[in-house]
Design goal:
Helices cover about 35% and strands about 25% of the residues. The chain is of the alpha/beta class and about 270 residues long. The longest helix is centred in the N-terminal third of the chain and has 20 residues.
């Protein structure tokens, strides 16, 4: 997987250098390049392309399917912003990589849910069941907090937002945890009794969080998905124009009409 990420990053950097060479060319056109995961982030960006064009800004969307490369590309200057992550993940990534990326503004929450292809009800979850969870520190802790909130486990007082299976103090059903990269979780459903899947990956896999999730994070979640920029770019006019476009009634209406509760606007 690491080799794949390096390959994708190198290929993207080669593309971006070429793309940046043409930036702002041809009559002073403003170009805004944003990295995003496909659903719902890239879809929401596609929705506001014309709104930004009316402001003289050409929005270029670069799609990613992992949670590492978009931040590395942003830090390298090959993106103007990215849109795929929540603030706790960003804080964790910054600390791990010694970066100074910042949240420009929040847009929505994608409720985390437990899905299964083996059982139809959470009441059917048996003793010793295998549960796949995200392996990145923030989303792993978030998944465990969901299980704790629903009464399946109790975490130690020291676990905080980045708990791991080692922080499970009580486990009444003797759940067995399998830690996987977030993008792989939908594909793991045939191999485990359940998987706790991020909202965007659930939607990409054709899962409906409201009807398919056995348990679902509430809309009160603190894990708001944010548009991320390099420190100092929060007030860049192009970023402010993107905020105006994304935090609009048009986008809120689209979210309500298209994601069946799997995405919740926070503005």
């Amino acid at each position: 997987m690491k080799k794949l990420i390096v390959f994708v990053l190198c290929a993207f950097l080669a593309f971006s250098v070429f793309a940046r060479g043409g930036s702002d060319a041809g009559g002073g056109k403003q170009i805004l390049t944003v990295g995003a995961t496909p659903v719902p982030h890239a879809e929401l960006l596609e929705l506001v392309k014309d709104d930004l064009a009316a402001e003289g800004i050409e929005l270029r969307i670069v799609e990613f399917t992992d949670y590492v490369t978009p931040n590395l590309a942003l830090d390298a200057g090959d993106l103007d912003a990215n849109f795929f992550q929540h603030k706790p993940y960003l804080d964790s990534f910054n600390a791990e990589r010694n970066l100074t990326l910042v949240s420009a503004f929040g847009v929505h929450v994608e409720p985390l849910g437990l899905y299964s292809s083996r059982i139809d009800s959470i009441d059917q979850l048996g003793n010793g069941a295998s549960i796949a969870i995200p392996n990145d520190p923030t989303n792993e802790g978030r998944a465990l907090l969901l299980l704790e909130a629903k009464g399946f486990i109790t975490l130690s007082d020291a676990a905080g937002l980045e708990g791991t299976p080692n922080d499970v103090a009580q486990n009444s059903k003797n759940l067995r945890f399998r830690e996987l990269e977030a993008a792989q979780l939908p594909r793991s459903l045939g191999d485990v009794d359940g998987a706790i899947i991020n909202g965007n990956y659930a939607l990409e896999a054709g899962l409906n969080p409201v009807t398919d999730a056995l348990i679902l994070e509430g809309a009160e979640s603190p894990y708001v998905n944010v548009v991320t920029v390099r420190a100092g770019d929060e007030t860049n006019p192009k970023i402010l124009a993107l905020k105006k476009a994304l935090c609009s009634q048009k986008v809120k209406d689209y979210i309500l009409a298209n994601y069946n509760g799997g995405v919740v606007a926070t503005f």
